[in-house]
């Protein structure tokens, strides 16, 4: 009996040690993972929407966008303020003012917010890093030429130089080639479209709705956000709500209407 008991005791000891190894405290496991270079999960994972004042996460846009057929001409890109799609999405676009709010890049990154920046000024200034940070957070970089107040009335050669020149400076600075153009103040003429086509622009982008200091202003349409609307989010005014605060209000409004945000380039470029 004693001869049989010894192997049994040894087996029990092995099983006990194995059970202890499997029941390591979870905090100790996290410490070992961190020591091995593995990053422990963030305690706030999945809660980013609450940080930015949303009651629920943004719905994920369709992985296969319902892209409408767009009539394209070799000598003039289409001019759009709305995408004719059945997807329940809207598109958020920003100009240079997006770089003024230091928290906006965090918002874009944490919410995985698909936004498009149309840049004109500041691309080559010492402060261009704010746009690089937004691009690193996932924002798309597009063209808003020129430095002049407006394009209409300028000769073809000058308009082409402004549009292509800004495209090339953006490409040199950020390593991207903009395919969309927003003319300053939404003003353009037939010469603008010819020059844009020569610079490889696939669409001239205006806006159906604009978010200003006093809320959303609809240029035309139903007077409310509808699927496919392109929204211009302005920088706001000093002393008023920040860009992130106003963007959060717009997101809440879209969510109440059963809409989410999609990347404009997925539908146009």
Brief digest:
This protein is an alpha/beta fold.
Your description of this structure?
- The structure is a single chain.
- This protein is α/β, with parallel strands linked by helices.
- The chain folds into two domains: 34 residues; 210 residues, TIM Barrel.
- The chain contains nine helices and ten strands.
- Strands 2, 3, 4, 7, 8, 9 and 10 form a seven-stranded mixed sheet that branches.
- Strand 3, helix 5 and strand 4 form a beta-alpha-beta unit.
- Helix 4 packs parallel to helix 5 and helix 6 crosses helix 7.
- The protein starts with a helix and ends with a helix.
- The relative contact order is 0.18.
- The N terminus is likely disordered.
Task: Provide the descriptors you would attach to this structure in a database record.
269 residues, alpha/beta, TIM Barrel, 2 domains, 7-stranded mixed sheet, 3-stranded parallel sheet, disordered N terminus
SSE arrangement:
Layout: H1 2-22, H2 26-35, H3 48-51, E1 79-80, E2 89-94, H4 104-111, E3 115-119, H5 129-137, E4 140-143, H6 156-174, E5 180-181, H7 190-198, E6 203-205, E7 209-212, E8 215-218, E9 230-233, H8 243-256, E10 260-261, H9 265-268
Helix pairs in contact: 4-5, 6-7
Radius of gyration: 26 Å
- Regions with pLDDT < 50 over 5+ consecutive residues? 1-6, 10-45
Total domains, how many?
Answer: 2
Supply the number of helical segments: 9
Number of strands: 10
Q: What is the CATH C-level name of the largest domain? A: Alpha Beta
**Topology-level CATH name of the largest domain:** TIM Barrel
In the CATH classification, which architecture of the largest domain applies?
Alpha-Beta Barrel
Helix content: 25-40%
CATH homologous superfamily of the largest domain - what is it?
A: Glycoside hydrolase/deacetylase
Mean pLDDT: 81
Structural class, judged by helices and strands? alpha/beta
């Amino acid at each position: 009996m004693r001869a049989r008991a010894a192997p049994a005791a040894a087996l029990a000891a092995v099983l006990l040690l194995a059970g202890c190894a499997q029941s390591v405290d979870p905090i100790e496991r996290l410490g070992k993972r961190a020591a091995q270079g593995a990053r422990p999960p963030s305690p706030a994972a999945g809660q980013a929407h609450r940080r930015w004042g949303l009651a629920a996460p943004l719905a994920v846009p369709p992985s296969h966008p319902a892209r409408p057929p767009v009539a394209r001409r070799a000598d003039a890109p289409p001019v759009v303020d709305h995408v004719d799609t059945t997807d329940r999405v809207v598109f958020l676009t920003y100009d240079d003012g997006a770089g003024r709010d230091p928290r906006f890049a965090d918002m874009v990154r944490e919410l995985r917010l698909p936004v498009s920046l149309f840049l004109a000024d500041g691309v080559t200034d010492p402060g261009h890093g704010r746009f690089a940070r937004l691009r690193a957070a996932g924002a798309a970089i597009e063209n808003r030429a020129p430095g002049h107040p407006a394009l209409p009335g300028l000769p073809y050669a000058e308009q082409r130089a402004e549009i292509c020149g800004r495209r090339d400076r953006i490409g040199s600075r950020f390593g991207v080639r903009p395919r969309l153009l927003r003319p300053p103040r939404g003003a353009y003429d037939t010469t603008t479209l010819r020059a844009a086509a020569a610079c490889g622009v696939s669409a001239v982008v205006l806006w159906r709705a604009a978010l200003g200091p006093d809320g959303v202003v609809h240029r035309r349409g139903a007077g409310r956000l509808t699927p496919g609307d392109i929204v211009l989010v302005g920088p706001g005014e000093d002393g008023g709500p920040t860009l992130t605060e106003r963007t959060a209000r717009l997101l809440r409004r879209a969510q109440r209407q059963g809409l989410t945000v999609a990347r404009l380039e997925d539908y146009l470029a």
